[in-house]
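Exercise 7b. Backbone tokens:
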């Protein structure tokens, strides 16, 4: 199914910085053998490869970050030598740049919906 016409002006391709954070999440997951879910791993691969995401995927990303913001307060979240599972998962979804990007795209989608109403 194609992109709805109301979203044609929105860029659903992840920026390079988001791709780099997802790649780092995949690297850490390989190195430590933990962190993330199959969905998070698939998301990281899409982000790393800068695949055009669907509007539904943007909403799932937004939901992930809203639910997992609390993980940033966990032990070893910022420790690259011994990263928490939460840090690895956060990076798989694009890290802080992924959060900012999906929030921006979500807002553009919201404005496009508002214009249609």
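Sequence design result:
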């Amino acid at each position: 199914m194609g992109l709805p016409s109301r979203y044609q002006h929105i860029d659903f391709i992840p920026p390079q910085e988001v791709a780099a954070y997802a790649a780092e999440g995949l690297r850490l997951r390989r190195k430590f053998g933990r962190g993330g879910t199959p969905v998070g791993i698939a998301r990281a691969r899409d982000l790393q490869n800068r695949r055009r995401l669907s509007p539904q995927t943007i909403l799932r990303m937004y939901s992930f970050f809203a639910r997992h913001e609390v993980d940033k307060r966990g032990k070893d979240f910022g420790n690259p030598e011994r990263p928490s599972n939460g840090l690895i998962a956060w990076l798989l979804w694009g890290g802080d740049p992924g959060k900012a990007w999906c929030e921006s795209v979500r807002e553009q989608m919201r404005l496009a919906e508002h214009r249609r109403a």
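Instructor comment: The CA atoms of residues 10 and 105 lie 7 Å apart. Residues 44-117 form one domain.
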